Structure formats: C-alpha cells, structure tokens
Amino acid sequence: MEQHEETRYVKRTQKDYSMSFKLQIVQEIERGEL
C-alpha cells in the first residue's frame, strides 16, 4: 500500500512539474527571452 501511494504521488508531482515548466516557458516567451 505504501508503494502504491508513493507511485501516485510521484506521477502527480511529475504532472505538476510539467505544467509549471510549460507556464514558465510561456512567461519567458512573452518577455522575449526565448
């Protein structure tokens, strides 16, 4: 059960990180840094 909870947490974290990373890229493009 511990392993299952850990897996769910990791997957959610990876998704949140991906979302934050995309938002950061968009902000940089809007500022003309990319």
Automatic annotation (TrEMBL):
Domain of life: Bacteria
Protein name, as recorded: Transposase
Organism expressing this protein natively: Flavobacterium degerlachei
